[in-house]
Specification:
The longest helix has 8 residues. Strand 3 and strand 4 form a beta hairpin. 11% of the residues lie in helices and 43% in strands. 18% of the residues are buried. It is mainly beta.
Length: 188
């Protein structure tokens, strides 16, 4: 476990009446069980992050009446990368399909993220990049474009079409919080 925060929301009609109940961002001290009050709190909001020794980071978010006693963290077993060439990327999601995923590609000064629906499991990053015919990228050599990160998130109650309109609307986020979101990111 890398870090864990727990916020107590005392009044769901006024998020200014929220307090940090637990905040541990220093794994060197170890992370004890999270303790929290069972009274006076209307909702709990938890963020947790865990890392593995293989450059992977799992994330967990929850919002609800209770704090989960176990966290269903994602890991590398959730997917298989079939090919990771810059002109042929292919992924298979082994268990449940995520809400979205993104790949990060890099070469020289260019860092490019491609967000995709879990229905689009085959990508051609080099073809997409060159098809843009960007004037600011003219003359650049992208032959060494390489995959540097894969991330995915499964947000309960949202599919790919509903996710981005939700997370880009601060008023909607305040009115309706998602119950849980589980994510994973791996650096290559």
């Amino acid at each position: 476990m890398q870090s864990c925060t727990l916020v107590g929301i005392m009044d769901t009609t006024d998020y200014n009446k929220s307090v940090f109940l637990y905040n541990n961002g220093s794994p060197s001290f170890g992370i004890p069980d999270v303790e929290y009050p069972k009274k006076l709190v209307q909702k709990f909001e938890m963020h947790a992050y865990a890392t593995n020794t293989n450059k992977g980071t799992a994330s967990y978010y929850s919002y609800g009446d209770a704090v989960p006693s176990t966290l269903p963290l994602a890991d590398e077993s959730a997917y298989t990368i079939n090919t990771s060439q810059n002109n042929n990327f292919s992924i298979k999601f082994n268990s449940s399909r995520p809400t979205y995923y993104y790949t990060q590609w890099q070469t020289g000064n260019l860092l490019w993220l491609i967000y995709a629906s879990p229905d689009s499991t085959t990508l051609n990053p080099m073809g997409l990049l060159t098809s843009l015919k960007s004037k600011s990228l003219q003359g650049q050599n992208f032959s060494s474009l390489a995959l540097t990160r894969l991330s995915f998130e499964n947000t309960l109650g949202l599919d790919y079409q509903g996710y981005f309109p939700y997370v880009t609307n601060s008023d909607l986020i305040k009115m309706k919080r998602v119950a849980t979101s589980v994510g994973f990111s791996k650096t290559y």
